[in-house]
Write a structure and sequence with these properties.
The chain has 149 residues and is mostly helical. Helices cover 60% and strands 4% of the residues. The protein contains 6 helices and 2 strands. A two-stranded antiparallel ribbon has the order 1-2. α2 packs antiparallel against α3, α2 runs parallel beside α6 and α5 packs across α6. About 27% of the residues have low confidence.
Length: 149
């Protein structure tokens, strides 16, 4: 079977439909409120939905090996960022930090809560690499180059 230009496969449309339905459910779930009318009065009580999150504490320790991995990853990208320039390089910084942080849910949570932690780690572990990254990306610090955290 060949797909003509301008047509979408059933699988593609199904994936879009499933993604759209999931997004709609997420929006509806986030916006829902519980309105309860007891019948004894004419007032309506709106109760905010309660959510219990089980997360690892943000104070969990980032190991020396994880810190060194961030430095190694940054150092490996420096020459690319010099060639690509600050605009493309900043996107690369985001991808690099997101990948590093995603390897451990604890680190990811810490970076989301405090982007400056990337600067703290690199200042402590590899200040020369940090300085070169800041120079190559034309940013005042690594935290200011992170978007989406």
């Amino acid at each position: 079977m060949t797909i003509r230009r301008g047509t979408t496969s059933i699988v593609g449309r199904s994936a879009v439909a499933v993604a759209s339905a999931a997004a709609l459910l997420a929006v509806l779930g986030a916006c829902s409120t519980d309105t309860t009318n007891t019948g004894s009065s004419s007032t309506t009580t709106t109760v905010a939905p309660t959510t219990t999150l089980t997360t690892t504490p943000a104070e969990a320790v980032i190991t020396d090996a994880q810190k060194q991995q961030l430095c190694t990853d940054l150092e490996a990208q420096l020459s690319n960022w010099r060639v690509q320039g600050p605009t493309l390089g900043r996107g690369g910084l985001n991808i690099l930090v997101q990948t590093w942080a995603a390897q451990s849910g604890v680190i990811n949570l810490q970076v989301v809560q405090n982007r400056a932690i990337v600067d703290e780690i690199t200042t402590e572990t590899c200040s020369d690499v940090r300085d070169e990254a800041i120079r190559s990306l034309d940013i005042p610090d690594l935290a200011s180059g992170l978007v989406g955290f």
